[in-house]
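Quiz preparation item.
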């Protein structure tokens, strides 16, 4: 059994390699999909490296403030080639609340309606088996991202069938002849970065301090907060927290804690408001693209016409949001936090 993992320096990683060192074996693996370009099975290494750099940019734009670059530990393409994301002994940002105790394998592409290739499934199984022998993890696949978060990740076609098939194949590989693994995985980085205070910190009205500023910046990034970034949680901060919670469909307690923080962290920067009759603003397209990725029939042309209005209203109604057909902070966050 030989499985090659193309290392970070080959694909050209430029951003931080996770935010802290991890020691010991993980409990197992969660599986994700990237919902980025779905390359064909005959894609070139150059194309895949470019996709890895794109994934790194996405991870950095979402979690860079927490010292993160690419989010996932291993990325598998339809070609069957595997790439090193965040190193196995560094903490990534993939499986909300479990980033220190599990690792991640991400299928590059969108698997909501597309089957993973046989080559990719085989590679994932080989990685699972190898990782167990190498002491990366003690179990195999523990679940798909959706098992622990309101997300469609890793896509129906990865989730519904192959998860157990991959585990079965990995067990078969482990039960077979003495394996000879030879992955190209560099030693863990010794670079240290200050890690973000992820757990046990709560911000609510009346609080004062840098933790409040962090919450305000995050809420401003998503369009919920327009007030001063003054490290003081007043009524405006509380209103913004509740608005985020409503959009994300989580408990509306007005307290910025792990749940709110995790919901916000998965949402890209708010592109701005889009209303019926706006053209070529560069704002409508991100909504249309996300709706299309979620399976809605919509034309991605950056034109907010009647068709887009109808789909936005249908989405808003389905999620119990204000039905106005406009794209605003509430709709934007819901598009990234609500289950399909
Ligand atoms: Zn995921």
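Solution:
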């Amino acid at each position: 059994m030989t499985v090659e993992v193309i290392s970070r320096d080959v694909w050209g990683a430029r951003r931080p390699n996770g935010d802290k060192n991890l020691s010991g074996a993980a409990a197992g693996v969660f599986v994700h999909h990237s919902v980025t370009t779905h390359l064909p099975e005959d894609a070139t290494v150059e194309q895949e490296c470019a996709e890895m750099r794109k994934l790194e940019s996405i991870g950095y734009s979402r979690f860079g403030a927490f010292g993160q670059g690419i989010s996932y530990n291993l990325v598998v393409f339809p070609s069957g080639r595997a790439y090193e994301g965040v190193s196995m002994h560094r903490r990534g940002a993939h499986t909300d609340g479990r980033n220190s105790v599990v690792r991640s394998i991400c299928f590059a592409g969108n698997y909501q309606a597309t089957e993973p290739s046989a080559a990719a499934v085989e590679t994932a199984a080989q990685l699972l088996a190898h990782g167990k022998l190498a002491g990366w993890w003690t179990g195999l696949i523990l679940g798909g991202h959706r098992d622990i978060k309101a997300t469609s990740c890793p896509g129906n076609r990865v989730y519904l069938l192959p998860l157990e098939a991959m585990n079965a194949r990995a067990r078969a590989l482990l039960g077979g002849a003495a394996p000879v693994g030879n992955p190209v995985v560099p030693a863990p980085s010794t670079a240290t970065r200050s890690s973000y205070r992820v757990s046990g910190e709560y911000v609510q009205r009346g609080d004062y301090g840098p933790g409040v500023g962090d919450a305000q910046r995050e809420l401003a990034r998503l369009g919920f907060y327009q007030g001063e970034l003054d490290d003081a949680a007043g009524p405006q901060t509380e209103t913004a927290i509740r608005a985020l919670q409503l959009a994300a469909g989580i408990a509306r307690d007005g307290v910025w804690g792990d749940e709110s923080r995790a919901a916000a962290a998965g949402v890209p920067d708010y592109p701005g408001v889009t209303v019926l009759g706006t053209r070529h603003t560069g704002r409508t397209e991100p909504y249309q693209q996300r709706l299309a990725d979620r399976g809605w029939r919509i034309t991605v042309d950056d034109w907010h016409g009647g068709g887009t209005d109808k789909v936005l209203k249908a989405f808003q109604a389905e999620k119990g949001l204000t039905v106005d057909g406009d794209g605003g902070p509430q709709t934007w966050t819901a598009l990234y936090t609500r289950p399909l």
